[in-house]
Amino acid sequence: MAGVVLVVVAALVALLATRPPATETEVFTPLLGKTAPGITATTVSGQRFDLGSYRGRFVVVNFFASWCPPCQQEQPELVTFAYQHRHPGDAALVGVVYDDATSSARAFDTDAGATWPALVDPGGQIALHYGVRAPPETFLISPSGTVVAHIDGAVTASYLDKQLAAAGAAGA
Amino acid sequence: MSTRHRRPAASRLVWPALAVVLAVALTFSVSTHSGARTAAERAAAIDGNLKCPSCESISVQDSSASTADAVRQVVLARIHAGQSDQQIYRYLESLYGPSILLRPPTTGITAVVWLVPVVAAAAGLGGLGLFFWRRRRPVAVRVTDEDRALVDRELARRLDDP
């Protein structure tokens, strides 16, 4: 009997150990399928940003904070994603600072080598309009300006590519 | 002549008295919760019915989180813009989903949350009523000719036996 239990436990451990880590989860948001809320803001380096000027491209909007461990975990993946999609007209990446000091967010991005704009969100109004509860949360916006995916938790470059491919295949 | 005895006057007044108390309480409750309210009072009432988006089961009113602060700002701005309470709830629900509401909506699948206690209470009251009604109902006894003959025989036996 003890042998059977041991085998079952060992099989369970092996199964769990070989599973991919559950970092990102695509979750429902009432915004799915709707026009993405407009974003006009200032970046952490003081430049103006308008989401409307990105129409015609896929846009990944990532809400992050320097104090958030999953954000720290996903940052190198976002750097990879941004590099892979660096060509003009390709998918764009935009960060939105969530409940964090501008200086901390700027240092966080600089240290990681982030090349994409990070937006200041005074009063958390951008986060509110996207229904964000806790960072990191990532939204994929189609070239027509529709929210096509919402990912809760740390993302990977490959997962974002899969989402892009799925959205592209669906004609988003 | 009727054999029913009349209940004492005090006992007969219990139900009307309870009805009056209930009516007064309801009237008082409605009158104190309606009427003109200031924007701040309306905002506080709405904030109390909203769940802080980044917290665990704390209302926007009771939370100091930045997300709660953002919601408070939106609620106040929309009140000043002339929106009704329902419009504001619907707007926030369109962003966060129904989980932003501390009270589940009374429509859709969440209506079950409200319906189950009502149905259970109605079933319980109905069951109690049925129980007492059946206890008070006189039991109908059907006397057959055989029963009558048995009684006659027994009476005759006792009369014959001094």
Shape category of chain B: elongated
Can you summarize the main beta sheet of chain A?
A: 6 strands, mixed
Poorly predicted tracts of residues of chain B: none
C-alpha Rg of chain B (nearest Å)? 32 Å
Query: Roughly what is the average pLDDT of chain A, rounded to an integer?
Result: 90
Q: Report the structural category of chain A.
A: alpha/beta
Biggest pleated sheet of chain B: none
Poorly predicted segments of chain A = none
By DSSP, the count of extended strands of chain A is 8
Report the span from N to C terminus of chain A.
55 Å
Mean pLDDT of chain B: 83
Assign the structural class of chain B, choosing from mainly alpha, mainly beta, alpha/beta, alpha+beta, or little secondary structure.
mainly alpha
The total of helices of chain A stands at 5
The share of residues in helices of chain B is: 55-70%
Number of helices of chain B: 7
Helix fraction of chain A, binned, reads 25-40%
Would you count the extended β strands of chain B for me? 0
The share of residues in extended strands of chain B comes to: under 5%
Structure write-up:
The complex is a heterodimer of chains A (172) and B (162). Chain A has 172 residues and is an alpha/beta fold. Chain A is 35% helix and 19% strand. Chain A has 5 helices and 8 strands; from the N terminus they run αββββαβαβαββα. In chain A, β7 and β8 (147-152) form a beta hairpin. Chain A starts with a helix and ends with a helix. The mean pLDDT of chain A is 90. Chain B is mainly alpha-helical. Chain B folds into 2 domains: 39-100, no CATH class; 106-162, no CATH class. Helix content of chain B is 63%, strand content 0%. Chain B is built from 7 helices and no strands. Chain B starts with 8 loop residues before the first helix and ends with a helix. The model of chain B has no long low-confidence stretch (mean pLDDT 83). Classes of the chains: A alpha/beta (172), B mainly alpha (162).
